[in-house]
């Protein structure tokens, strides 16, 4: 091989290497799932943190949006399920409770179920926190509503008959059940459906709580934004 031919051959090899390196970089940066820079509560075990990180990678971002009618249907089914199982009448399934849950879903997720956008552990249509799920499922529902606990597993669990946190993302009705049972922990009555101002304050006090970033004003604003979106 002549010197000129060798230089040409080496140049082609070098170009090929650069192209291969560029291809690798493209695959690495664009096709490899990103690492999420998140911080979970230190009280969680390493296994719980890995589980929540896997859910964040899987369910972050908006993939679907419910209409007002769809959201209200989900809420109706969830409330009537609780009422029917508990054998109660006009306690869990009332116009006031349904309207409060609708406003809650608008405020928390904008009717777009997903894992919480920023640091945190909330998931689903109602952005139920992981700690809230654990407390409701392992204490409040299991202890105080054993029949409901059994029927939730029967109707919403998979083949292994277990209810997991991810199920609140996969089933909007199940998420609504947990949201309704969170409100059920409050001892005061839910304000009338027509009194949106008081419902907003009730949401802030018992759902978002004083530790949350939302306010009764943001409740009213986000609810209105959802309704405006459908016009």
Notes on the structure:
- By secondary structure, this protein is mainly alpha-helical.
- It has a single domain, classed as Lysozyme (Orthogonal Bundle).
- The chain is 63% helix and 0% strand.
- The protein is built from ten helices and no strands.
- 30% of the residues are buried.
- It comes from Intestinicryptomonas porci.
- Keywords: Membrane, Transmembrane, Transmembrane helix.
- This is Transglycosylase SLT domain-containing protein.
Summarize the structure.
The chain crosses the membrane at residues 12-31. With 231 residues, this protein is mostly helical.
CATH overall fold name: Lysozyme
Mean pLDDT metric: 87
Number of strands: 0
Overall geometry: globular
The residue fraction in helices comes out at 55-70%
State the end-to-end distance: 75 Å
Q: Could you state the order of secondary-structure elements as H and E?
A: HHHHHHHHHH
Count of individual domains? 1
Structural class: mainly alpha
What's the CATH class, please?
A: Mainly Alpha
Instruction: Note poorly predicted spans.
Output: 17-36
Strand and helix layout:
Blueprint: H1 3-31, H2 46-59, H3 68-86, H4 95-109, H5 130-144, H6 146-156, H7 167-170, H8 172-183, H9 196-208, H10 216-229
Helix pairs in contact: 3-4, 3-8, 4-9, 4-10, 5-6, 9-10
What structural keywords apply?
10 helices, globular, transmembrane, Lysozyme, transmembrane helix, 231 residues, 63% helix
